[in-house]
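Researcher: Here's a chain I'd like modeled. Treat it as a single chain, no partners, no ligands.
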Amino acid sequence: MSAAPSTLLDGAIAPQENTRLFGHAEAQIFLAESYASGKGHHALLLEGPEGVGKATLAFRFANHILAHPDPLAAPTQMSDPDPGHPMFRQIAQGASHNLLHLTRPVDAKTGKAKTAITVDEVRRAGKFFSQTSGTGNWRIVIVDPADDLNRSAANAILKMLEEPPKRSMFLVLSHAPGKLLPTIRSRCLAVSLRPLGDDDLVSALAHLGLSAPEHVRDRLLALAGGSVSQAIKLSNYGGLDVLDAMRAALGQEGPARRRAIHKIADVVAQKDGDILYEFFIDQLGMEVSGRARAAALQGDVARAFDLSQLKATMDEQIGASDAYNLDRKQTVITLMGEIAGRL
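Model: Modeled as a single isolated chain. Structure tokens:
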């Protein structure tokens, strides 16, 4: 049972349909052995950067559990799920009665994913657990990601974590666990996933049928930071070109800089260009944060503080722009103008 899926990146495979996971061998062994011991935790917090495979691992583990409902008879290693197996197909199609995928629902009016997982979505988990499993199997809820829970939804999930139903399993995903309610973190066993190494990232991209041209391969891998989703945005969404344009614009002055900024804003703020816009906004923030860290390491405390304050101001402006649905082009122009004046 699945909520309407959020936007899937062009070239990506939905985690519930993905039969391969690259990297994270230690995490897979830990999860399988913990489950086979019969003493596994009822709530696992899969934490790590976005795009490293948390959701794929969650669905992989769910397949493992549902295929081996008796923990003591389960193998201590996870294998690739069989795409031809009825259970895998049910999970992939969101039709399993033993698994509920909680993610941001799609707004029926706009056709886009809403900005948060609401309490109404979490209430679906209550109904899910109240139904009797026809097979007596485990009931698994994947919260993807918990970072998107609004306050009411987070409190509702917390109550379930405090009083879990029998034979229930919560797989809670988070890109930024430090921002979750401390009480949610304390009810979960954390399993940390690191960014993928270059070899695993290259293999993951090859599995998707993607490969970077040789002349940009090293740069793409470095900028991707071990994230498959970041690599896809860099290669399939023109991210590399946008980054080049951003840095070139910030290095110019006067009318030339203003023209360059307007040109960038035209590209990244296009209608239905949510992914590129969000990528660009994130990169702007990373540019400022990176320069603040560099200034701090060089002992220039005043500049580091100034850039940190700029980053905080940018976050407020971006939050207001999203909350009030302000013009994205103007948001980009304003942010870049402020950054250019301070770098």
